[in-house]
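Model it.
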Amino acid sequence: MKKRYLVIIFLEILIILASNCSNPESVEEVDTSEWKLVWKDEFNGSGEVDLSKWEKPEYNRRNNDNGKDGWWLKENSYQDGNGNLVIEISKIPNRNNDNDSHDYATGAIRSKNRFEKTFGKFEVRCKLPTQPGWWVAFWLMSESVVNVDSSGEDGTEIDIMEGFGWTDRINQALHWDGYGDDHKSAGNSLAIPGIREGYHNFTLEWNEEEYIFSVDSVETWRTSAGGVSKVPAYIKLTGEISTIPWAIGDGWANDPAYGSFPDYFLIDYVRVWERNE
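Modeled.
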C-alpha cells in the first residue's frame, strides 16, 4: 500500500511539472522588494496588438538575389484571443517579381518610440516554434548601435534569446560598433533539452556593470563584453527567415524547404522591471 501511495505521489509531481512547462498561466515570481514593474504587455486581446505599445515594421527583411526572400509583414503578428501574441511564418506569393514561385513571411513588433529604457530586468515567457527553416528572437535595440568607437557603451544590440524550430540550441549575443567592417560581437550558445516544449522564460538583467542572462530563472551567461551600453533600448519580438547559405545549414536555422508551414512563435507576456531605490 505504501509503495502504491509513493507511486501516486510521484505521478502527481510529474503532472505538476508538465503543467508548469506547458501552461502559459504559470509565471515566474519576481521579488517585489527588489524590483518594481514599470512596463508590460500580457497579450490578452484578440486580433491587432496594442499599437500604443508596439510598432509593426513591414519590408523585405532578408533579400536573396539568388532565391526566396524573407519578409516582415504586419499581418503575421497578432493576438490569438487566448493570451498569446502570435508571430507566424507562412509562404506568400512572390513579392519582388524575381522568378521565385513564392517568398516567405514572418512577423515582428517593436516598442520603438513607445517604450525605451536603460537598465532593468527584461523578461519574455514564450513557446518556441517547431519547424526548421526560421529563427525567433527576443532582443533589445538602440539606434546608436551603428556608432563606431570600439565600445558598446553608446549602443549595443542585446539578443536575450534567439531560438529555432529544429534544434534545442539557444543563442544569447551582443553586437556593437555597427554591422560593417568594424562590427564586434560576443555570444553564448547552449543546448537545453526540451526547450521547444511548452512555455519558458528568458530574462536579462542589465545594470551599469554587466548583463546577466537567464533561462527559467537559471543564470546562463554573465558578461560586460564591449562595455555595457548606457543608452536606452527598445524591445523587439521577431521571427526571421533567410534562404542564403549561412542561414540554411545546421549552424543556424536549417532549410525552410524542409518545414511545414504555417508555424508559430507564441508569446505569453513581456515584462520590464527596474530596481527599487
